[in-house]
Design brief:
10 helices; 204 residues; mainly alpha; single chain
Length: 204
């Protein structure tokens, strides 16, 4: 009877140990990812090293390499985690607004408020953009293009005016443009958004 119970329990124990081991691996990976986020949003990607991430996460460099083959792989996980906590504004809600002026007002108000709320974390990342993996740079550029297209109503401008409007909108949605208006020129995000709308609508 006792032998039968022993054999009955053993598979469950093994499954529990395997499940617990998988949980520990996930927890360690998450801890490393969160450590990378803290460094990327403070000292910036250009000054983040595997050794620094390992120290921040309280693990060894070897442990970091067990989970991420290089800084590029770690960066992808880091940005994915940060983006999940800080989702971009809903572009679909902008596209649903038919009139350009109303769409631009809603979009710039939301985007500039988003920048304002995250400026301290965004600054080191955007400042070190050229230190990002190529894939991350391309993903960020694609996001900026999508934001611009949502505001102007197209990603394929078909005449000179539309092309100029797209170019101006692309400039206006950039983090550095918001920072110039809101930080260097000391406009509130609301006033900065109003200025952006005025500049966009001035294109004819």
């Amino acid at each position: 009877m006792s032998i039968s119970k022993k054999h009955t329990r053993s598979p469950n124990k093994r499954q529990y140990r395997m499940r617990r081991r998988a949980e520990q691996i996930d927890e360690t990976r998450q801890r490393i990812t969160e450590a990378a986020v803290r460094l990327h949003t403070s000292v910036g990607p250009a000054n983040t090293t595997i050794a620094g991430v390992a120290e921040e996460a309280g693990v060894t460099r070897l442990t970091v390499y067990r989970h991420f083959e290089d800084l590029d792989a770690l960066f992808v996980a880091c940005m994915g985690h940060w983006s999940s906590l800080n989702p971009w504004p809903d572009l679909a809600s902008w596209r649903a607004i038919e009139a350009l002026d109303e769409r631009a007002r809603a979009a710039f108000a939301e985007l500039y408020a988003w920048y304002d709320a995250r400026q301290d974390e965004l600054l080191p990342i955007v400042r070190d953009q050229t230190a990002m993996p190529e894939s991350a740079q391309q993903a960020l550029a694609a996001q900026m293009t999508a934001i611009t297209a949502a505001i102007v109503g197209t990603d394929k401008p078909d005449d000179a005016t539309a092309h100029t409007r797209f170019a101006v909108a692309r400039l206006l949605v950039d983090f550095w443009t918001w920072r110039s208006l809101a930080i260097e020129q000391q406009l509130t995000s609301t006033r900065a958004a109003e200025a952006a709308v005025a500049m966009l609508l001035a294109v004819d």
